[in-house]
Each structure stands twice: as structure tokens, then as C-alpha cells.
Amino acid sequence: MFHSLWLAYAGLALIGLTIGGYGTLVGAGGGFLLMPVLLFIYPHSKPSELAAVSLACILINTISGGIAYAKQRRIDYKSALLFSITIIPGSILGAMATKYVPRSDFEGVFAVFLIALSLFMFLKKTESRSKPAERKVQKKSSPMRKPVTKALDGIVFEYEYNPVFGMTIFLFLGFIVSFLGIGGGALIVPTLIYMLNFPIFIAAGTSTLMIAIVCFTSTVMHVAIGSFDWWGVIHLAAIGGGMVFGAQVGAHFSSKVKAVWIVRALAAALGAAGVKMILAALAV
Q: For a pLDDT cut of 70, what percent of the chain falls above it?
């Protein structure tokens, strides 16, 4: 039995290693990968328990990646903290909601999310990772706040966005990512880029701080409502430890691998998983 437990923990660490590496490789984090895996491995566990483990693991992975982004000066701290004014209460409500949602309903919502994310990944154009960063000031039109961020290599990014619009968006996103237990990288980064005019170079770094805030807040709430216990701590140690090492591997290969076909293959897998979950729910 002792031997089988070690094999189980080694398997969880391998899952974390794979998800952490792949998530970093495609630049979308690992939350949207980890939660479907947990739902598959533990078919009888409560959604709140699985979401708690997923969010805690993503927190560790995000901190690891966030340190690298901070050194490169790719984080807009003021904007991240501004959006946190609404993303924090949204994530608190999302964490509380998982406690009262039956597993079947949760899987239905998650299946729809997977299919929508799959379509988005298919339709979204993936830029080549070998493309050099633009050496010029990036300006985009939108009222109100005008942050200026100077990156480590001297590139200056100047951009504009409406803070009220941004705070409103992240109130809902905070709820969604916390409720689904996905951390939110696959949603926060596109939102910053396509809806709030953030340069890609800054959006990826800024999202890590926001994800860390969401995951920390949600994890604390899950501890408070009893969803995160010793079972969760053990899984956090195994999966989270693997994700930390996986993130480093993914970061190493991120500049050497073209992500377009990898992303499309992943999108197909996510879409198939979503359809399978819906068909299983209808068959019950």
C-alpha cells in the first residue's frame, strides 16, 4: 500500500510537470488544463474540493513565472492592483458558489466553457514566437488611464484604456475563473490585449500578478469554507511541485517551439472533452 501511494503521488507530480510545462509553452498558464484532469481522475469528488486544489497549484506556478516577469519589468503593477479592486470580490463570490453547485451542474457549465475556449483557440491567430519585439512606442486609443511601462531592455510601452470598463469586466472574470477553478490565464490575457488595449509584452506579465491575486484570494476562501483540507494539501504538494519544474522546462523551450499546431491540437482535445462531458450528462 505504501508503494502504491508513492506511485500515485509520482503520477500526480508528473501531471503537474506536464501541465506546468505545456501551459508555459503556449503562454496560457495551466489552470484550464488542470481542472479537467482533476474532474476525470476524481469523478466522485466535490467541485469545491477540486477547484481548491487547482487554484492553489496555479498560485504556486504563477508565483514561479511571475518572478521572471518582474525581473523583465513586464508587469503593470498599478493596473493590476486597480483591477484587483473588483476581481477580488468576484473571486470570493466564485469560490463560495462552488460549495452550493451540484457536480452534474458544475460539469455542464465547465463543458460549455471548454467548448467555447476550444473555439476561441481555433479562431485566434497565434503569433510566431520567433518574431522580435517591436522597438517603438505602442499607442492605442481609449479614454482615461495612460500607463507607461519601461521594460528591462529599454522598450517603452505607452497605451490607454478605460479603467471603469476594465474593473467591470474583471468583476465577472474574477467570479468565473474562481468558480471554475482555472486561475484565468486563458481569459485574462486575451481580455487585457483585445478589450483593454494592453501590449502583448505587458499583458502576459501583468496577468501573472492578477492570477496570483485571484488564486490566493480564492484559496483562502476555500480554506475558510472547509473545501481545502489535508487531502488538498497533499495534492498541492505533489501537483504543485511538478508544475514549478514544468514551468521552467516550458519557459526554456518557449522560444524554440512554434505553438500554432500545438495550440490547435490542444483546442481539439479541449473541445472533445467538453462534448464528451455534455453527452455523458445527457445520457444520465
A: 79
Return the ∠ at Cα 278 (arms to 272 and 282), rounded to 5°. 140
What lies within 8 Å, CB to CB, of 262 at 6+ separation is 22, 25, 26
Secondary structure element (H or E) that encloses residue 185, with its range: helix 185-190
Q: Is 180 helix (H, G, I), strand (E, B) or coil?
A: helix
**Quick count: other Cβ atoms within 10 Å of Cβ 130?**
9
As beta bridge partners, residue 157 has 149
Tell me the three cell numbers of residue 105. 451542474
DSSP state of 248: H
Residue 173 burial (C-beta neighbours within 10 Å; 0-12, 13-18, 19+): buried
**pLDDT at residue 136 tops 50:** no
User: Which residues contact residue 131 at a Cβ distance below 8 angstroms, ignoring those fewer than 6 apart?
Assistant: none
CA 94 to chain centre: 15
DSSP state of 229: -
Grid coordinates representing 207?
Answer: 496577468
pLDDT at 27 (0 to 100): 57
